[in-house]
């Protein structure tokens, strides 16, 4: 093994923009800039509306704010490398910076999954026991749930940088994506990655997999409760309060499953397809979640419309 090559590959990785078409990278700069702008504006609007409107100071909207903050944080985790490639045509990323980005991307992914579980619990309590909803989900309990979700993410992702740093890298240092992922960097190692693979599988099963089952079980209980309501109008009203959360769950898990399936079984597919799915998985939910909640949640929609009408009248 060439020690110089090993040291060089330890020192940095090369990120990939549009596979096989590096000259086309600048064409992605403006669409990506537009998506990041939408993410900041959409989630910022949600946070501002909930802060200003006193009637939105309820558990459901506090959880929505936590989701918005998580979406922004997840987007900002990918922003530096995306800008580096598509805006400045600089695909090289230092090893430590790559590992740091890896930690935050995986960490905020686990946080988002946990927040979606918390929101499922919120909907269950609201429908199962509406009279005691506010007294059960107090500010203190919501804060504790948020801390538990964050602590869980930190604990399960914390070993990842150390698992990567212990590996020798003497093969190619070219990554498959525009940002750093554990499974992507792991495949470049020239030693056994069994421990990394096993740990990654355990984390996915005990976080994303378990969270998906809990959300499914929550909606089974919600559906059982709703079917017990005598009035058809009340049943529809109760289910309608869950639509936004269901959309958020689908926006998170469908791209995740799609990216996983393409990575696992789509070896024969074009690298562009892999790049597209990987970017959709991280960029789509933060952009669409605030749009979904703005459209489907009447108080938020009403407040946004009032703001735009006020500006129009002032003009």
Automatic annotation (TrEMBL):
Coiled-coil features, chain-numbered ranges: none
Keywords, sorted A to Z: Cell membrane, G-protein coupled receptor, Membrane, Olfaction, Receptor, Sensory transduction, Transducer, Transmembrane, Transmembrane helix
One function term, GO molecular function aspect: olfactory receptor activity
Chief location: membrane
Gene Ontology cellular component terms for the protein in this record: plasma membrane
Bilayer-spanning residue ranges: 27-49, 61-88, 100-121, 141-164, 198-222, 243-266, 272-293
SUPFAM superfamilies: Family A G protein-coupled receptor-like (SSF81321)
Protein's cellular compartments: Cell membrane; Membrane
GO BP: cellular response to lipid
Domain of life: Eukaryota
CDD domains with a match to the protein in the record: 7tmA_OR51-like (cd15222)
G-protein coupled receptors family 1 profile domain sequence ranges: 42-293
Nucleotide-binding keyword on record: no
A Pfam family the protein falls into: 7tm_4
Keyword Repeat annotated: no
PROSITE patterns hit by this protein: G_PROTEIN_RECEP_F1_1, G_PROTEIN_RECEP_F1_2
UniProt topology in membrane: Multi-pass membrane protein
Xref: InterPro entries: GPCR_Rhodpsn (IPR000276), GPCR_Rhodpsn_7TM (IPR017452), Olfact_rcpt (IPR000725), OR51/52/56-like (IPR050402)
Similarity comment text for this entry: Belongs to the G-protein coupled receptor 1 family.
Protein's recorded name: Olfactory receptor
Organism of origin: Rattus norvegicus
Biological classification of the source: Eukaryota, Metazoa, Chordata, Craniata, Vertebrata
């Amino acid at each position: 093994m060439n020690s110089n090559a090993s040291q060089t590959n330890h020192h940095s990785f090369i990120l990939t923009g549009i596979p096989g078409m590096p000259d086309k990278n600048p064409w992605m700069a403006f669409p990506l800039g537009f998506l990041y702008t939408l993410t900041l504006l959409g989630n910022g609007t949600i946070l501002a509306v909930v802060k200003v409107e006193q009637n939105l100071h309820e558990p459901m909207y506090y959880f929505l704010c936590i989701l918005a903050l998580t979406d922004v944080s997840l987007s900002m985790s990918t922003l530096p490398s995306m800008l580096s490639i598509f805006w400045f045509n600089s695909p090289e990323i230092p090893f430590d910076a790559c590992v740091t980005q890896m930690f935050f991307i995986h960490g905020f992914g686990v946080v988002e999954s946990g927040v979606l579980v918390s929101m499922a619990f919120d909907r269950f309590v609201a429908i199962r026991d509406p009279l005691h909803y506010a007294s059960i989900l107090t500010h203190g309990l919501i804060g504790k749930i948020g801390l538990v979700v964050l602590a869980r993410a930190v604990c399960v992702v914390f070993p990842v940088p150390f698992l990567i740093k212990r590996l020798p890298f003497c093969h190619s240092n070219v990554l498959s994506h525009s940002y750093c992922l554990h499974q992507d960097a792991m495949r470049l190692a020239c030693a056994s990655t069994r421990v990394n693979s096993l740990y990654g599988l355990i984390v996915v099963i005990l976080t994303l997999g378990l969270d998906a089952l809990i959300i499914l079980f929550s909606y089974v209980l919600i559906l059982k409760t709703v079917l017990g309501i005598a009035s058809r109008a009340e049943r529809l009203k109760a289910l309608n309060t869950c639509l936004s959360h269901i959309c958020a769950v689908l926006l998170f898990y469908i791209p995740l499953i799609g990216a996983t399936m393409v990575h696992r079984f789509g070896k024969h597919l074009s690298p562009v397809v892999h790049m597209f799915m990987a970017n959709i998985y991280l960029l789509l939910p933060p952009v669409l979640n605030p749009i979904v909640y703005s459209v489907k949640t009447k108080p938020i929609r009403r407040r946004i419309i009032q703001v735009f009408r006020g500006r129009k009248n002032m003009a």
